Here is the input.
Amino acid sequence: MRLLLIRHPKPEVPEGTCYGRLDVPPQHEHLEQTVQRLRVRWSAGARPAPAAVFSSPLQRCARLADALAGDVWPEVRHDARIAEVHFGRWEGRRWAELPREELDAWRADIAGHRPPEGESLRDLAQRLLAFVDECLPREAPPHAEVVLVTHVGVIQTLRRVLRNEPMTGFGATAVDYSSISTLVRRDGRFEIESYNVAP
Here is the structure.
């Protein structure tokens, strides 16, 4: 089984804003470009429709997934467990304006520290593993593709937890907007096939 992790298009939000769970829309032009590229990718006849498509319910993901549902994709299932990490009281504020002591504590323990009223990456990992256990078929044929339209934090976290890697170095590898990261499950283990590939 191949797991395709698609990051949402560029959001309509001021640069430097913390917007984890903030429900910001995608930039219209970038959304349209991404929809067209993904439609070509799946309609060229070279690859079958995905076996399943899941999307974060946040509109920067859902609007992309829904635009292809019933066309080159099956109907989309929206699942809050693949929404971005919740930054609590930091949401909607500029990173540069956040209290230094709060940021320093978070950076010192990126996996375990919770922003005020938010969640940690370990919290995120727990809900992602619950999603995987429930929604990813264990006996899927090798050629089957499952698509997740989601967020950078989810992609970085899944890439690690599905391969039993530590969360250290989180964010060291960039994940571009609208890119596709692909994991392949072979003999019950996930491997990276490609990372950060344009649609």
User: Anything to note?
Assistant: The beta strands are 2-7, 52-55, 76-78, 145-150, 180-186, 189-197. The chain has a mean pLDDT of 93. The chain has one domain: 2-144+152-168. The two ends are 19 Å apart (CA to CA).
